[in-house]
Specification:
Aspartate Aminotransferase, domain 1, three-stranded antiparallel sheet, globular
Length: 370
């Protein structure tokens, strides 16, 4: 453990799965342009459509309605800006990719556990006269809280509003059935499930029309021009296939997460684990360390050989005050002192023990209880 860092930041990105690496290596070097009409182009097209089908199988979606993008951020932007909406409603805990794309959106509050307040959503919808889009993330990247998507769709449908969900964190961690969700659009990304970075998708329901953000050669049925990132798509498809074939993986990961929370609570009974009593992703813990800033904790864990974060990874590489925890209105300390531990398929019980020991060491050192 002294030589290899312990990686517990799976919500930021994941290691490339071994099966995906093998698949990608087997595709390197080919002239992969699916738009070419010769035999090599047709071969590339078959690989691209196979990947699309693998993803569709994982989420139960119409294969032809999966639009490949450069990632979750582009998928969110296409969903939010591609329709002619007079009003957009988002939650106060959305990823920056949604909040930045909808600076004039109406924001819905969340309760102290981070769950969208449904009566407030309905009240806002009842006072809108126009073409409205509701965008609520399926699962939060910082706390792991799972939103009541079914109820959100039911409320929105009463007022004729479409619903988009950023499901980037939910993909692969909880069952997703797009056909039965009632969603009009859903954003997903490969690198959260063991695929490569730089590839994602926007999934749309039948009848949804979008104005493309990128125009040119008319790829992706004119909805997203540009030669497809076929290697990324191949990796995404393979990762989706592996996830679909390993349903027990998440149960094992959740047992590790629960073990961590139990052991930490036994050693430090006053520990505050956010949203512990509501539905959460089974791999995520948002933990408050009393008296120690999140930035100090992240650096301390890094020195101990543990890689984790204080929330969403941002381009500056700095730890920012969490707008997610702030929106939950549970006090100033959780807003500034919360770290996120996110486990994955390579996590082990030995790492849990080391993590708990490191947590206590950092806390005691900061509070001069060495």
């Amino acid at each position: 453990m002294e030589n290899a860092p312990i990686y517990l930041d799976y919500n930021a990105t994941t290691p490339l799965r071994a099966e995906v690496k093998v698949e990608l290596l087997g595709s390197l070097g080919e002239p992969n342009n699916p738009s070419s009409i010769h035999s090599l182009g047709r071969s590339a097209r078959r690989r691209l459509e196979k990947s699309r089908n693998q993803i569709a199988t994982l989420i139960n979606s119409p294969t032809e309605n999966i639009i490949f993008t450069s990632g979750g951020t582009e998928a969110n932007n296409l969903a939010l800006k591609g329709g002619q909406y007079t009003d957009i409603i988002v939650s106060s805990i959305e990823h920056e990719a949604v909040l930045s794309a909808t600076s004039d959106a109406k924001k819905i509050s969340v309760d102290k556990d981070g769950i969208v307040i449904l009566p407030e959503l309905e009240n806002v919808l009842a006072n809108i006269n126009g073409n409205c889009l509701v965008s609520i993330m399926w699962a939060n990247n910082e706390t792991g809280v799972i939103q009541p998507i079914k109820e959100i769709v039911e409320i929105a449908s009463k007022y004729g509003a479409r619903v988009h969900s950023d499901a980037v964190q939910a993909l692969g961690k909880i069952p997703i059935n797009f056909r039965e969700s009632g969603l009009s659009m859903m954003s997903i990304s490969a690198h959260k499930i063991g695929g490569p970075t730089g590839i994602g998708a926007l999934v749309i329901a039948d009848g949804v029309e979008l104005k493309p953000a990128l125009v040119g050669g008319g790829q992706e049925k004119g909805r997203r021009s540009g030669t497809e990132n076929i290697l990324g798509a191949i990796g995404f498809g393979k990762a989706a296939e592996v996830v679909a074939q390993n349903p027990a993986e998440n149960k094992r990961i959740q047992k590790l997460r629960d073990l961590f929370e139990t052991k930490l609570s036994q050693c430090f009974p006053k520990v505050n684990i956010l949203s512990q009593n509501v539905p959460r992703l089974g791999n995520t813990s948002a933990v408050v360390m009393p008296g120690v800033l999140a930035e100090t904790q992240v650096m301390g864990f890094d020195l101990e050989g543990v890689c984790l974060s204080a929330g969403a990874a941002c381009s500056s590489g700095k730890v920012k005050r969490s707008h997610v925890v702030e929106a939950m209105k549970i006090g100033d300390e959780p807003t500034t002192n919360t770290i996120r531990v996110s486990f994955g398929w390579d996590s082990t019980e030995l790492e849990i023990d080391f993590l708990v020991d490191s947590w206590l060491k950092i806390y005691n050192r900061a509070n001069k209880k060495i």
